Amino acid sequence: MAAKGKNKRIPLQKTIWCKVRYWQNINDITDHELADYLGCTERTLHNYDTDPSCITLKTIDRFLIITDMSLTDFLAAA
Q1: What is the CATH number for 27?
Q2: C-beta neighbour count of 63 within 10 angstroms
Q3: Which residue among 25, 38, 49, 77 has the highest number of C-beta atoms inside a 10 angstrom radius?
């Protein structure tokens, strides 16, 4: 068994949120447009930047529908 704190990993919510922001960046999407896609406010986006643990599966599903990506493709992307 690994000692506590020695086996650090990035939480899934943070990984997902970083991928959303990466997609936004490479597709030159504004925060306003992304918020519209996700059905939230720009303030919520900035809250996710600080603490992505609140992001819901509904939000991710909406993102996948809007972008026409499968979850597998999304998670495998850069």
Answers
A1: 1.10.260.40
A2: 21
A3: 38
